[in-house]
């Protein structure tokens, strides 16, 4: 098809690029635009630019942005660190083990990847209520760890299978214990896979909306996503503050991605090209 219609591919690419570019343009354009101009002409460039919207968000009396930012940083950081460690350890076990238990565990984790979080949200809330973790940050972290660990395990398993097992055998011959082999030999080689897991899970947890809204509850805490939702009242007309809050909420995760991007592609393709 593309050989007969050589113009089709660039047109499709241009249309898809425009679909992705429009929201990326609208947010920063309206952040630096006076509020009365946003509703009148949302697609116009911000001229003259102003920082009033950002200043208004940062100086809100209820500190909505700062409280939301602190909660999101705590939840995301603790979740991804625990997920990375657990996924790496379990992925190493599955990659090196040939027992029937490892095969059964792999199938269980595969089933976990297929279940949407909304399907299990009500049973999860009942479990959290029974353990008195409902409406708490540890409860949200525990949910993130339980739900996202299958993804991390499969990324690490594929990558570890590309690491020569002779490295571990040599460490065993030198008298190293199993835990020492993992932390001193295997785990330092997992930086590309760790970067991929950190980026994917960090972005997913940071952008999560429904789970923090339900688990934390309306009055116990807020994240950056639920903060944007709660900043929009029934008679909200300050669109400048809404756009500024969305803009500020994306900056930390963007910086996080740029810091780890050099390992990102290598980590994704490592398990697909080896082993």
Keywords:
77% helix; single chain; globular; MetI-like fold; 275 residues; mainly alpha; 0% strand
Structure, explained:
The chain has 275 residues and is mostly helical. It has helices at residues 8-31, 35-40, 52-58, 64-96, 100-114, 117-130, 137-160, 165-173, 178-186, 191-207, 210-220, 224-230, 239-273. It has one domain (64-273): MetI-like (MetI-like fold, Orthogonal Bundle). The protein has 13 helices and no strands. Helix 1 packs across helix 13 and helix 10 (191-207) packs antiparallel against helix 13. The longest helix has 35 residues, at 239-273.
Summarize this entry quickly:
The chain is mainly α and 275 residues long.
Cα shape: globular
How far is it from the N-terminal to the C-terminal residue, by CA? Answer: 35 Å
Largest sheet: none
Parts with pLDDT < 50 across at least 5 consecutive residues: 271-275
Helix content: over 70%
* Count of spatially separate domains: 1
Spell out the CATH superfamily: MetI-like
Instruction: Write the CATH architecture name.
Output: Orthogonal Bundle
Helix/strand structural class: mainly alpha
In CATH terms, what is the fold-level topology?
MetI-like fold
Our Rg estimate from Cα atoms comes to 23 Å
Number of helices: 13
Share of residues in strands = under 5%
Provide the succession of SSEs. Answer: HHHHHHHHHHHHH
Please give the number of β-strands: 0
